[in-house]
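tl;dr need the bound structure. longer version: we got a ligand (flavin mononucleotide) that a collaborator sent over and nobodys looked at where it sits. i said id run it. heres the input, straight from their email, havent touched it
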Amino acid sequence: MDLRLADLAARDRYKLLTSLVVPRPIAFVTSQDADGLVNAAPYSFFNVFSDEPPLVVIGIGRRAGGALKDTARNIEAKGEFVINLVDEELAAAMNVAAVDFPPETSEPGPAGLGLAASIVVRPPRIAEAPAALECRNHTTLVIGTDHRLVVGEVLAVHVRDGLVDPGTLRIDFDAYRPVGRLFANLYCSTRDAFELVRENYAQWRRRTGGE
Ligand SMILES: Cc1cc2nc3c(=O)[nH]c(=O)nc-3n(C[C@H](O)[C@H](O)[C@H](O)COP(=O)(O)O)c2cc1C
């Protein structure tokens, strides 16, 4: 089946693209409004982009009625935010934080989550998160009327003790247990990870005798 996106309604494009581009990591973003109120919300249009400078990207849409989401407004106003990574234990509380609470509600409260001070940015991290990336807003691309691509520079990283080897910086995946977003209400774990050893050209030729 071939589909031209121009022939599809926006809702169908969303459905198709977000169920094909899976699994997506989840940025559980904490930010602060002008009065310092802490906002927390999940964003799965998210990925790491580069290491020099160390950048991450998040796609933020608008609320159904057209209002700017609190996360977008806070990042614009304060220029700082924290991306909390989501593991299996944190998933249910992350989902509570996705409720379209009014701006005056601080989601960590109803989600039953604690906050911990960040190292270099003002917004705090989620205390229960296995890891957190402290970010300064690098650039925001406003695309059309409804979408923002927020680029964040990662200034500091917090990782829960025991998850990272301090010598090698390798992550213990049996202990980390991150979740990914599939489509709609579906999520996946990393319990069935498998290995593919990456070869260079010389190794590939030796193994296959090809080319
Ligand atoms: C797992 C998950 C991923 C989400 N990803 C996005 C996303 O990438 N972009 C977006 O605009 N909304 C996304 N949402 C919806 C927002 O989390 C939701 O609109 C939230 O109320 C925004 O909160 P805020 O106004 O406090 O920023 C996602 C929701 C869930 C549950």
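gonna send this back to them w/ a short note. The first strand starts at residue 27 and ends at 32.
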